[in-house]
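Protocol step 4 of 6: record predicted structures for both targets in the notebook before any analysis. Target 1:
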Amino acid sequence: MEFPSKLIESAVGELAKLPGVGKKTALRLALHLLKAEADTTASLAEALAKMRFEIRYCDTCHNISDTPECGICANHLRDQSTVCVVSDIRDVIAIENTAQYQGMYHVLGGVISPIEGIGPSDLTIDSLVERITREGSEIKEVILAISPTMEGDTTAFYLSRKLRDLPELNVSSIARGIPMGGELEYADEITLGRSIVERQRSR
């Protein structure tokens, strides 16, 4: 693809690095931003820069946050006795959109994948155990809401084994309304909500 400007070529190259964005789409976006009001493009650039450099992760659940404690963890009206364990921040958003769950979360930051060199120590599993066993903890149930892929099932099995000996703790998994090999973020809200409500006890 030939470009009339090195600056356009550079912008297209950066935009094309985004998932699902090809060179033609990237060119269309770049030309749109070029034609837009200068303030519009500047606001977009500023918002992206702030997101990248100023956003942080919740000290408790590892969800994205603007403050040391995310809005969910800071909401004392939510059920403090239940923690839903997910692999990715996108899963928190997907479950919240169902409006079927009012407990807390814990974001692992991925799944166990030996092929990619990701082991249990690379995830926030120790942080989860510390939350559960901490003096004064109200946690009575852990829901494993991990996408039913091979790596997801491996992670769920590891967590079940890790947590099974903790006293007075119920470990459950979301019901298999999510198809094998499916990703939570792509599940429709009714199916995902029903999976949370009809979760199954793991031990």
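Target 2:
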Amino acid sequence: MLARMDWLPLISTLAGAAIGIVATLIADRSRWRREDAKEVVRLRLEVYTQYTTVVKVLGETLRALREQEHPSDEERVAALREAFRESGIAVASERMWLIGPQPVVKASNSVFHCLRSICDGYIDGTAVGSPEDHARWEARGKAAAKMRKLMREDLGVGPLLERHSS
């Protein structure tokens, strides 16, 4: 019986240490998961912000270029094409395709195609304020609103109570 009592403190110390190690590992794993989830949200916020900013600036640029006087139709077309190419929307779109969940990617792609349609319409001579122009901008506005809604849901942010200006 004396030998048994000598082992009991050692066994209970080892059991306590094992429990402490396992608890620490579980806590570390939980902390890592929380930090990883925060990093994913931070990265998506960065990508979403870049994309929505490019969309807004490109829209304003297209409208301004179409209303601007150009020496020739060829120069107007070249300016519109260059604005689209230089806007950064291709890079922002690729980042979205890599980072965003399927519903957000689909919505952002819809916005991209609306802007492409607006640009192509101006290249083809669509007049600013014409019914076709208005329809294209309206489609872009709806697509952008849907995209922002999905982005906010993905980020865990509540819905907006007022409409964003287009």
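Step 5 preliminary note on target 2. The mean pLDDT is 88. The radius of gyration is 28 Å.
Proceed to step 6 after PI sign-off.
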